[in-house]
Amino acid sequence: MEQLTPTVVTSNISNVSSPPGRLAPACWDSRGLVPAVMLSLCFLLGVPGNAAVIILKSKWQHLSSLSQTLMLNLAASDLLCLLTLPLWTYTLLFNWIFGLVACKLLAYLVYCSIYSSLLTVTMLSVQRYLQVVYLQRCLDQRRQKRLLGLLWLVAMILSSPTLVVRQLTTDKYGTHCQSQYSDGQRVLVLLEESLIGLVCLLVVMFAYISIQIKVNRAAFFSSTQTTRLVTIIIVAFFVLWMPYLTMNVFCVAAVYLENERLLKVCVDNSNTVGALTFLNSCLNPLLYAFFASRNIGHENPKNYNFPWYVTQKLSIKQSLSGSYTCSTRAKIILL
């Protein structure tokens, strides 16, 4: 995720670097200005949206506890990431003035929050898939805490290379917080990011397409409403992440082929395609909270357009248990 700052590559082919942290007056072009503008917009739009999800927590009380937990974790992860964007925007246009420790820790924090957000989105899709297709029982509070703990632990482990490769460099324009690594290190980092992103993308696509098929067959919802939301979620995920994953593949190919021109193209455009992924943090509140909530019924099964035999089954189980569980509610929903 080299979208944050310029990158220096120690390579067997001639050294190639993106524009220095402090751009010369003649270099205030798309390499620095475009990602800086994109990050600024992400901050201005994403922070209020994710903060609203947390503040309006009571609005989601009709959802399962696991859905609430994942939504809040997603909002917190995105908010944590977005709050650091002013620093990176400044760095894109000028230089780094916060020291080596801040360089490593802030970059690590951003990586952790991005991985946490990505894993949470994937977990939401899996949770919805199990809940809709298999009427899977929700986790209790203790298991939910363990799940979140495991999610953040994985995010922290995946982000750990940042603590090694982030260094301060100095040139005639000033000091910069940059990733510095050899060909081998660069390939390993890019392959890790690409593999994780691709797996998450495939899981999300499979889960939501399966949900749509299940819902349409059961006629639990208007197929148009479900299709629209599922399509938006998949397209947004694909459009915002695929350019970055594709650029990673090109960078790996450039290193293996020792193609200096291709590597320069990758490095020059890495900030722009990387900044595009931050738009995902702006859209998440709309996709997973406000917009999707319109498709949610209430706890009473009569408010769902369930077939009569499902409603009857819910009523019988309610009378036996005295309350609804996630499995007996059989929420055919997208949250």
UniProtKB/TrEMBL annotation:
GO biological process, one term: calcium-mediated signaling
Domain of life of the organism encoding this protein: Eukaryota
Signal peptide annotation: none
Entries under SUPFAM superfamilies matching the protein: Family A G protein-coupled receptor-like
Localization per Swiss-Prot or TrEMBL: Cell membrane
Record's keyword terms, sorted: Cell membrane, G-protein coupled receptor, Glycoprotein, Membrane, Receptor, Transducer, Transmembrane, Transmembrane helix
Membrane association type: Multi-pass membrane protein
InterPro entries with a match to the protein in the record: CCR1-9-like (IPR050119), GPCR_Rhodpsn (IPR000276), GPCR_Rhodpsn_7TM (IPR017452)
Matches recorded under Pfam families: 7tm_1
Cellular component, GO, one term: external side of plasma membrane
The G-protein coupled receptors family 1 profile domain, residue ranges: 49-288
GO molecular function: C-C chemokine binding; C-C chemokine receptor activity; leukotriene receptor activity
Transmembrane segments: 33-56, 77-99, 105-126, 147-168, 188-209, 229-257
Location, primary (coarse class): membrane
Protein name: G-protein coupled receptors family 1 profile domain-containing protein
